[in-house]
Design brief:
- This protein has 382 residues and is α+β, with helices and mostly antiparallel strands.
- It folds into two domains: 206 residues, Gcn5-related N-acetyltransferase (GNAT) (Aminopeptidase, 3-Layer(aba) Sandwich), CATH 3.40.630.30; 141 residues, Gcn5-related N-acetyltransferase (GNAT) (Aminopeptidase).
- It is built from twelve helices and 15 strands.
- The protein has an eleven-stranded mixed sheet with strand order 2-5-6-8-15-9-14-13-12-11-10, with helices on both faces. It has a four-stranded antiparallel sheet with strand order 1-3-4-7.
- Strand 13, helix 11 and strand 14 form a beta-alpha-beta unit.
- The chain starts with a strand and ends in a 7-residue tail after the last helix.
Amino acid sequence: MSNFGVRFFSSAQALGKSAWQAFFDAAEDPFTSYEFIDALEQTGCASARTGWQPHHLALYHKQELVGLAIGYIKSHSYGEYVFDWAIAEAYEAHGFNYYPKWLCAAPFTPVTGTRLALSDSVNKTQALATIHTALDKQALQLGWSGWHINFCSRAQAEQLQEQGLARRTTVQFQWHNPGYQDFDEFCRQLKARKRKNIIKERAAVAKAGLRIEVASGDEITSVHIQALSAFYQRTYLKRSGHLGYLNADFFTRLKQSMGEHLVVISAYDGEQMVAASLFLRGQNTLYGRYWGCLEHYDRLHFELCYYQGIEYCINQGLAYFNGGAQGEHKLARGFTPQLTHSCHRFINSPFAAAIDDFIVRETRQHSLYLQQCTGLSPYKVQ
């Protein structure tokens, strides 16, 4: 283990594109790709000003780069989707600092993927132990309350749990494609009531006279990007009172640097674009990310965010459709529940026992919720 060393980098560019791409592949997960992370950093969306100060961890073995973790020093808990507000409030109420903390995650993205990427040549247990020690040391030096790894794989969560981290779970709803030939075949697998509801919702959009268009890659124009940015900001302003985490420059840079991974599905009333959804595409998965509209149209959200995404996956032969965090309403539209995982290390926490008890109870609740949702499957019993 003495041959391992750790360095921290203040940006993806400081580490370098080729080094980054050796560990994170856009085809596997576009949200950990160099292009996505660099776009966030270069446009100021992920910065110290926004509470996402880049602090990426690089692991070396005998001077060779053998591991990489996407990391940020956080001064708040916004944009994480693994909620720790109650813990933060307990710290504050008793005069302790919960922020700053270190977070390993794809910013603003509740998508499971590789978080601590390690070379196949290293002993995983030793590598993780080295990272653990290095992050503990940084926490003490920089005054972090702890460090956290969100939306890692179950296998990595289990490895980190063996290293002494606390493991939390959440429930998401995702759509799986066993090889449907068309949308009608998918609908025929659903219980009659669910099938009729989907047909009714799609009919409402058709009745409104809206035209739906799908654009990907080079078909996406600056008009799409400008509209998406405006829709995104309108949606956040209405829902949260602010313009959202992402700015217009980010969407422009995303189109320039990884346009081949983008899919835009738009709705038009005559010649005017009135709504749009942005998806990112990996090798086997479509990821639904951002949506917005100029005005309300009945059931248009379900059409652009779910049904069009399902159709796209069927037409393109994609195996999975990740619709994002939460959303129990997805269950009735063909999505199925699954657990996601995160791991947490609290340094010298004054609430260690309370946090442990909370996580145990939370895990039981999520396990029960998963069972309940599974029992409400919209699919026919085979």
